[in-house]
Specification:
This protein has 426 residues and is of the alpha/beta class. It has 13 helices and 16 strands. It binds zinc ion. The site of zinc ion has 6 residues, from loops. Belongs to the ROK (NagC/XylR) family.
């Protein structure tokens, strides 16, 4: 029965790893909590919790943190917290006109952040990745000075990414096709000098994951678990979250809302179709309808998010061409989203990314179309609540989603993930 013995050991290993993950997640969520409090929250016995905590202390993922309430009756126990000198998730974002990098610790706090303007439109991957690598090096050095170590890197891109790969299959606004980012990205390395695990994902997907983990209303509502998240950089992307899981599609390309037809005989689109949403609600289309060229917009308001900022300013000033253009964009978004809402029955639609900033001028026509065209209206996060919610994370969503995504491997499997990035000679 030798085989059964090995299998039994494997199962025990897997169980132990799962329990280490549960304990680490519990402490990360709680802030400071005692061993008894961990037992109470995880349903593990106190005797079972003790060796798991010891292991996480040994790995430097937990620290003793004075005294903490047990969560129940009885005297306070000695507190535990996740280390603020432990692993950090590194998120990076490649935008059409900016680059950004940030690091979050196990407590979910942003510990370092840099951003730079960049003219990435139709620029080859090489130079863009070199600049991004320099920013990565800067952030890695900043967090190293605080005793943090990169556990992984996730890069948000405005394009299609093959599921589970680091290859950008097509990013029309960057002009990239089949670009593998692995060789060009350096700067995020572990203590051994080897690059940390890399993943690449679509920015709309990461924005939705950020909403799932960090979103929710300022009024204390929990983040929704069933929603359609719409975001825009230069294109329009969406992500569908069902039961707390991102719907990626067979190849990872789900969410191309920008190419859903809203006017079947409408304007031709770069994708080969006609009347796609992007032709009416995409940034270029809105600028054109507002009587602006992208060059005018950039000249009038330099810096990241320049064109959106200009549109917001003109709309706030009551410029009729701009408010008219945004009304039209809202109408087109409402028509496209009616299809998604009818199909998916989401709890809510979340307007994120750059669109969040333009919400006051987009929402009225968007909600009007949704109400008109849906058989069953979205089930709103609370009775009488908005059918369309505006993300509090706004344009930060994809970058934060990336950084939190990079930490997930550590939370899922504390021993293996941290060891992979940092062989244990500390
Ligand atoms: Zn199209």
């Amino acid at each position: 029965m030798k085989g059964a013995g090995v299998k039994g050991q494997d199962t025990q290993h897997a169980l132990r790893r799962r329990n280490l993950s549960r304990v680490l997640r519990t402490v990360a969520a709680a802030g400071t909590v005692s061993r008894a409090g961990i037992a109470e929250r995880t349903g593990l016995t106190r005797a079972g919790v003790a060796p798991l905590v010891d292991e996480l202390l040994r790995l430097g993922l937990l620290v003793e943190a004075g005294r903490a309430a047990t969560g129940g009756r009885g005297r306070p126990g000695s507190g535990l917290a996740v280390s603020d000198r432990g692993p950090a998730g590194i998120g990076a974002e490649i935008g059409v006109d900016h680059l950004a990098v940030c690091a979050v610790d196990l407590r979910g706090r942003v510990r370092a952040r840099v951003a730079a303007d960049a003219a990435n439109r139709h620029s080859a991957p090489g130079p863009v990745l070199r600049r991004l690598s320099a920013l990565l090096m800067q952030v890695t050095a900043e967090i190293a000075a605080e005793g943090l170590r990169p556990a992984g890197l996730t890069v948000a891109v405005p394009g299609l990414v093959a599921r589970g790969s680091a290859t950008v299959v097509h990013a029309p606004n960057l002009g990239w096709r089949d670009a593998d980012l692995t060789p060009g990205l350096t700067g995020a390395t572990g203590t051994s000098g080897a690059p940390v695990p890399l993943s690449v994902d679509n920015e709309a997907h990461l924005g939705a994951l950020a909403e799932l983990r960090l979103g929710g209303g300022a009024d204390g509502l929990a983040p929704p678990t069933d929603f359609v998240h719409v975001s825009a950089e230069s294109g329009i992307g969406a992500a569908v979250v069902v039961d707390g899981q991102l719907l990626r599609g067979a190849r990872g390309f789900a969410g191309e809302l920008g190419h859903v037809p809203v006017y079947p005989d409408g304007r031709p689109c770069g994708c080969g179709g006609r009347g796609c949403l992007e032709q009416y609600a995409g940034e270029q289309a809105v600028l054109r309808a507002a009587g602006l060229t992208p060059e005018q917009a950039a000249a009038a308001h330099p810096g990241p998010g320049a064109r959106i900022a200009l549109l917001a300013r003109r709309a706030a000033d009551g410029d009729a061409a701009t408010t008219g253009a945004l009304h039209e964009a809202g109408t087109a978004l409402g028509i496209a989203l009616a299809g998604a809402v009818n199909m998916l029955d989401p709890r809510t639609v979340v307007l994120g990314g750059a669109l969040a900033r333009l919400a006051p001028w987009i929402l009225p026509s968007l909600e009007g179309e949704l109400a008109l065209r849906t058989a069953v209206a979205p089930a709103a996060a609370r009775p009488g609540g908005p059918l369309v919610a505006v993300s509090r994370l706004g344009a930060d969503g994809p970058l934060l989603g990336a950084a939190h995504g990079a930490l997930r491997a550590v939370l899922d499997d504390p021993v293996t993930a941290d060891a992979r990035a940092h062989p244990p000679h500390r």
